[in-house]
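[Q] Does anyone have a clean structure-token version of this?
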Amino acid sequence: MQIRIKSSKIAEIVNGSCTHEDLVITNLANLTSAKSDSVSFFSDSKYKNDLITTNAGLVILKQSDANLYKGPSIYVDDPYLAFAKVSNLFFKKEYKPEIHNSAQIHSSSLLGENLSIGPNVVIEKNVNIGKKSIIGANTYIGENVILGSGVVIHPNVYIGSDVKIGNNCEI
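[A] Here you go.
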């Protein structure tokens, strides 16, 4: 399924100001390969020529660089960070909420709703995992760990005891 998102929604997500609010964006790309339905970003003056010649439908950049580009834009403090946030919209991983039967979860741990816990995961005592989190295969989570909601832990990660990880973090 192709993602279709309005430029105004992108501006809202990155906390930026948008010059053209009704553009429909379907992908992201660098300045040189972008097309009219792409969002791209500019954050380094060495890419000034690429900015001038881009075919991007929408460019994320600093307000101080507005004089370099007159096309549809979103102005933000940190274009690189904003583009990273936008990329999450296009590359969100689909997951099926399930707990693999080989996972070892201590009985004192609290598990939120709609979790995906992969094979060979070890979760020690007094762990609290928020809803809609994903724990990849072969991950170890030590005692007294708190994971917020929407956390993604990739496979083969070691998380020691007494660690707190906030909502929507990815490790």
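[Q] Thanks! Anything notable?
[A] The mean pLDDT is 93.
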